[in-house]
Design goal:
Blueprint lengths: L1 H12 L23 H11 L11 E5 L5 H19 L4 E6 L9 H11 L11 H15 L2 E7 L1 H8 L2 H7 L1 H4 L4 E8 L10 H7 L2 E5 L4 H15 L9 H12 L3 H17 L7 H21 L3 H16 L4 E2 H15 L6 H13 L3 E7 L5 E7 L3 H15 L4
Parallel strand pairs: 1-4, 1-5, 2-3, 3-4
Antiparallel strand pairs: 6-8, 7-8
Helix pairs in contact: 2-3, 4-5, 7-9, 10-11, 10-12, 11-12, 12-13, 13-17, 14-15, 14-16, 14-17
The protein binds adenosine-5'-diphosphate and magnesium ion.
Length: 402
């Protein structure tokens, strides 16, 4: 006990590595946005007619995660609202992140949220869909001004509710005489739009803008700006920014990942009591983030996938080479009888293997065995140091004892 109080005392007295940690919050808006002038200007051009009470085209913005989509649209919303205030013509801009739970996980909740933004409360449940839309369209109409509705991570909404909700929202303009609404949808998922109902699709993407991944040099610029606020001079060892950017640009240029990498590295450094963030801390941070990412995915898999994954992990611990579908299936069936799960067919198990492959947790390669048909070679794609902790996670979740 005494030791702990000593620890806290000296912790408080020690100087922090950070001068301002708030630049690492997800709500932080940087003062300058690097390397996105083209995209921001395009968005502004498309939405500007709203300032003359003309309905702008609907706009679909897509690009991989961490390419600055959310940041850029928020910036444009801020500026266009300021411009509208200056000219005296009111516009209403509503930003919704569809990934948020309890905001957009059902059609009803989304409509309730939107209606609330426009001053109409819906009961928490109970109204039939038609009625909900009637209230909403009414609320839109009564705004008597142009509306900009921004649906961020719109793919998450459609995944949860289907595309009829978009179809219905897009109808608002036919239902309202006094207001109009332009929709901006943003998505990290590039193929989602191809699976939409063609009418909805063409309506949402009257205009499209793509956000390409950043390259390593662009990520460096983004990092430098934040680092200059976050740390005192000289805290970062020579080359850390370059290393961080190189890591983040390896898969695709993801600014979020780069910023997280620096933060985690600095936290690890601080924990060891040093005042210097070194290249080694970047490596450790990269490992830690990857570990957390994997255990997150594993913990959130459905039971069946966990069961299949457990079989793969068990096999991988006892051997070095590839595993084959047949033996994984055998082990999996055994496990099913232990846990009381109903075994899937071998075909469905193959589908699950493909999913796990997509998540990057395994590598599954189809190989031909000549006249014996085809099978898959499976490799576990988890760092060896993590396999045991992953196994523990799975054991707990599946409630089995070895
Ligand atoms: N060009 C940029 N300049 C400064 N910071 C950026 C830039 N692009 C992205 N960021 C930062 O990177 C993180 C991810 O950006 P975000 O806009 O959320 O990406 P997306 O919405 O495309 O996934 C945020 O913290 C954001 O502030
Ligand atoms: Mg985003």
């Amino acid at each position: 006990m005494a030791e702990l109080s000593e620890f806290f005392k000296s912790y408080v007295q020690k100087e922090s590595i950070f001068t301002d940690k708030s630049v690492f919050l997800s709500s932080y808006l940087p003062e300058t946005i690097h390397h996105r002038d083209t995209q921001i200007n395009q968005i502004a051009q498309i939405l500007a007619p709203i300032l003359r009470k003309e309905k702008p085209s609907n706009l679909f913005i897509y690009g991989k995660t961490g390419t600055g989509k959310t940041l850029s649209i928020k910036h444009v919303i801020k500026e266009i609202t300021a411009a509208s205030n200056e000219t005296g013509l009111q516009i209403r801009a509503v930003y919704i992140n569809c990934k948020l739970k309890r905001v957009a996980d059902t059609e009803y909740r989304l409509l309730a949220q939107l209606s609330r933004e426009f001053g109409k409360e819906l009961p928490s449940t109970g109204l039939p869909t038609d009625e909900v839309y009637r209230v909403f369209f009414n609320a839109v109409d009564q705004q008597e001004c142009p509306i900009l509705l921004v649906l961020d991570e719109i793919d998450q909404l459609i995944k949860k509710t289907g595309d009829s909700v978009l179809y219905n929202l897009l109808r608002a303009n036919d239902e309202s005489a006094k207001s109009f609404m332009a929709i901006v949808g943003l998505s990290n998922d590039m193929v989602f739009i191809d699976n939409l109902d063609p009418r909805v699709r063409s309506s949402l993407s009257e205009e499209e803008i793509i956000f390409p991944p950043y390259n390593a040099f662009q990520i460096q610029d983004i990092l430098k700006q934040r680092i200059s606020i976050a740390f005192k001079e000289g805290v970062l060892e020579q080359g850390t920014i370059e290393k961080c950017s190189a890591y983040s640009a390896r898969e695709h240029g993801d600014a979020r990942r780069a910023i997280e990498l620096i933060r985690v590295a600095a936290e690890l450094a601080e924990r060891t009591g040093t005042q210097k963030v070194t290249l080694k801390h970047i490596d450790q941070a990269e490992e830690k983030i990857e570990r957390d990412r994997i255990s997150d995915i594993v913990a959130n898999q459905p039971k069946q996938s966990q069961c299949i994954l457990y079989s793969i992990v068990s096999l991988s611990i006892t051997r070095k080479g590839p595993m084959f579908t047949g033996e994984i299936y055998g082990l999996y069936r055994n496990l099913c009888s232990k846990t009381g799960l109903r075994p899937l067919t071998q075909r469905r198990v193959s589908d699950v293997l493909s999913e796990l492959d997509l998540f990057g947790i395994i590598n599954a390669k189809i190989i031909s065995k000549g006249r014996y048909g085809r099978t898959r070679e499976v490799f576990l794609n988890i760092p060896e140091v993590s396999t045991h902790s992953i196994k523990e996670t799975l054991l707990k979740s599946l409630d089995i004892r070895e």
